[in-house]
Description:
Layout: H1 4-11, H2 15-23, H3 30-43, H4 49-56, E1 61-65, H5 72-87, E2 91-95, H6 101-113, E3 118-121, H7 128-136, E4 141-144, E5 159-163, H8 166-178, E6 184-188, H9 194-209, E7 219-221, H10 226-237, E8 245-248, H11 251-263, E9 273-277, E10 291-294, H12 297-313, E11 321-324, E12 327-329
Parallel strand pairs: 1-2, 1-3, 3-4, 4-5, 5-11, 6-7, 6-8, 8-9, 9-10
Antiparallel strand pairs: 10-12
Helix pairs in contact: 1-2, 1-3, 5-12, 6-7, 8-9, 10-11
Amino acid sequence: MATMADVARSAGVSVATVSHVLNDTRPVLPHTRQAVLDAIDRLGYTPNTLARSLVTSRTRSIGLAVSAITNPYFTEILQGVEAGALEHGYSLLIADPHDDPEHERKVVQLLHERRVDGMIVAPSAHPGELVAYLGRHEVPAVFLDRLVDTPADGTPRYDQVCAESAEPTARLVGHLAELGHRRIALVAGLPGYSTTRERIAGYRSGLAASGLPHDERLVVHGDSESSGAERATEELLSLAAPPTALVTANNAMTIGTLRALRARGLSVPGDIALCCFDDFAWADLFSPRLTAIAQPSKEIGAQAVRVLLERLAAPDRPARTMRLPCTFVHRTSCGCPEEPPAQARPEHPELPAKSEQPKKPESSRKEPSRDRRRR
Length: 375
């Protein structure tokens, strides 16, 4: 097996120069760097990452703690994290906290004991133990998707990367209101998540902007999962004055809501309109096709890696919260007609201003049935 000394002899440089090329610890002239890289390729040299970590106190590895990695949204985030880590020469250690605070703290401790250089974590609804552990051990960390650090002065203690939540939800509500709906319900996520709080706030903002009253009975929690959304939707449909339109706050809950509607024999959008937060690969294959808010999931993952590496390079810099914009994907589950191919929007257009959102023509708009128009 080739050694670093063999690479140095083959390239005609010192062992120290080879080390600087491998570890990027000092600038090396381009032609010298290329000579070293050619020698590495020629000899098939593989760096001893364990030995290197003992010298540099860095393992060039990142810990990722994300629950529900089978969820398409988090799968795409994982792809973004993996691509970003690979681009910068880092390996990835993955753990699933199962959205359980105690298990979350344990898996983060296990990642820490494996000497990862830093962590990217999608926190649970009650991340107190997680935050305490990271702070006690001064672990460089980035919170992903869900915020846990939102002080009143706007200066977070930890880096955080997520998508916008409130404004996109308000846009969905506003779109449904423009189509004539007056009883619009929200199937919200698990209480305690920042995404749940923000999407409820966006829902209320959308109602207010449309001149509609807020009815507490029209906000139910599906706990961010399919079965919970199925129960929550059934609760909405059992109201004396049920909603004529629904907004679901994530992709898993959209599936549960559709199950509940099918069990009732209700069609979308004929009997009830539907818009959802989270676009996913097969949303365009449903009948009707799902009108949705698409989050930049891969970019969220890649951006989290960049922020973490910046933290490792400058540990004392102020923490920041980064919010990425979403896109409005207009299809037909909201009750709008299918657009002609020549006028079709791009698959993921930029989220339009409220005035730019498509409005169903008055002549073809389906009015909610009389028994559902009561407030």
